[in-house]
Amino acid sequence: TFTVYLPNSHSNLVIKKKSKKYNSTNINHPKTIVIICDDEEIGTVLCQLLTAADYQVIWLFDAIEAIEKIELIEPKVIILEQNQVTSLMLASEIKSVKQNDCYLMVIRDEINGHDWEALSNSGVDEYLLKPLQPRILLRKINKALNVSL
Predict the structure, then answer these.
(1) Taking CA atoms, which of 9, 11, 96, 132 is between 20 and 30 Å from 45?
(2) What is the distance between the alpha carbons of residues 70 and 67, in angstroms, rounded to a whole number?
(3) How far apart are CA 66 and CA 16, in angstroms?
(4) Mean pLDDT along residues 18-34
């Protein structure tokens, strides 16, 4: 939840009065999920699906800057939709920074035993295949976050 204040706006008084009615016990804080994806279609589907499932979603486009941002955001789940080489590099860097504090998932068109072994050795915990199936995605994320369905 966030509030935006616009300078020189009369609505600021109304917003300030309304915000006093809420206290921190009334606000539900969803778990944070970071998506690192440069495919606009997949990123949009993931954001819409996860937001509808009451997760806080942050979509990062730039894989190079993602590590810095992940340290600040502290997500519980990170979903990578990158090529094999970039995913391996990102997974290794993320796990070196975050240790076991986050759950890493990759999205692939296909995956074979050799690919999965390399990803798993780099710290990836789970994979999803395209085309994405919403029920499977949500089940795997809920399992990672220990959320009951």
Answers:
(1) 96
(2) 5
(3) 34
(4) 52
